[in-house]
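Limitations

Structures in this collection are predictions, not experimental determinations, and the ligand pose is part of the prediction. Treat each record accordingly. The example that follows, with adenosine-5'-diphosphate as the small molecule, is included so readers can see exactly what is and is not provided: the inputs are given verbatim, and the output is the predicted complex.
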Amino acid sequence: MKTRTALYPGTFDPMTLGHLDIIKRASKLCDKLVIAVAINHGKNPLFSLDERVEMVELAIEPLRAEIEVEVKPFEGLLIHFVESVGASVIVRGLRAVSDFEYEFQMAGMNDRLNPSIETVFLMADPQYQTIASRLVKEIARLGGDIGPFVTPDVEKRLKEKYA
Ligand code: ADP
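Predicted complex:
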């Protein structure tokens, strides 16, 4: 049987419970999940690439018993990375209508670049749907409680960043 590999790309700056929920859902749909952490200079991330990879690694540790999962940093064209890991599916999360326009264009362009790769959109559980890394960072910077939005590890790291 062919191994079905899915790739979930993102900046994960930092990883939130929304990302984690999408990862859990995606893991039910494939044999192997690659979580691709984008270098993403353009977004000027708060956390270094190594820190972002570490946060994802820690959060997904309990999932390793259930599915083959790898966390990999990547730079360059997404579709090339998808091809290089042998994935046939790109997983993206959709939160609100505001995500749609951008995701629609990305999925369309990636389909033109390689029509054999399918983009699949998943929605998080309603309690996680409004979580965005950008807002979590803003709340942490202003001293608010970010406990409901991230893992204890990420909460600790954010507090240290803004201490
Ligand atoms: P990117 O820079 O690629 O958008 P992000 O780390 O912000 O990276 O997001 C990665 C993916 O996870 C995107 O598809 C985004 O829509 C999705 N995502 C982020 N937070 C949530 C959430 N709370 N619920 C559902 N999907 C989410």
